[in-house]
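Narrative summary of target 7.
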Amino acid sequence: MATTISQEVYSSKSKRNQKLFNNPLLERLTRTHISVPVSIFIIVAAGLVYYGVSEGFISALHVSIAFFVGLLAFTWVEYATHRYIFHMVTSTKFRESIQYKFHGVHHDYPKDKFRLAMPPVVSVLIVIALFFLFRLVMGSWVFGFLPGFITGYALYLFVHYSVHAFRVPKNFLRILWIHHGIHHHKEHDRAFGVSSPLWDFIYRTMPRKS
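Modeled conformation, tokenized:
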């Protein structure tokens, strides 16, 4: 059963879905190769750590602590976003349209590899906004926290892409394939964690079935 479910994640009959926007520019922005945002986040994270430490804004020890906290914080944001925004209650036509463009289309076409991440332009704008927000809230700790946070996002993107693009590995990572496969094909209201089932366990949204 578990192997069958996990295989279904990447065995979708359609690899590319229909257009979401009539405007060619907007439509183009909905598609990006996973390597682009992942590279952006890793480079920015490394740059922030280097700049923060080299300029004396934060110590190496504090960077390590803040980085881990930021990484953990992202796993919660990933879970909450997936559960409460991507799977919002579609009580109106507007909410239904938003939910479908954000996430519903992914459930219909899980093998479309070019819609597994936000466009690079949006990613950069979000990183800039987060830097100023976290800088205002936590001061120099931002040079550790934000790198950890966006590294968490990069890892999420990589795991999500891998789950949909590659076959189930024969090692401890297979649990991620199975967990996400159950969410896609058996229980849409469970197994919201992609990079980790941690928060599903804490909030009791682990799959009901074995």
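The chain is about 65% helix and 0% strand.
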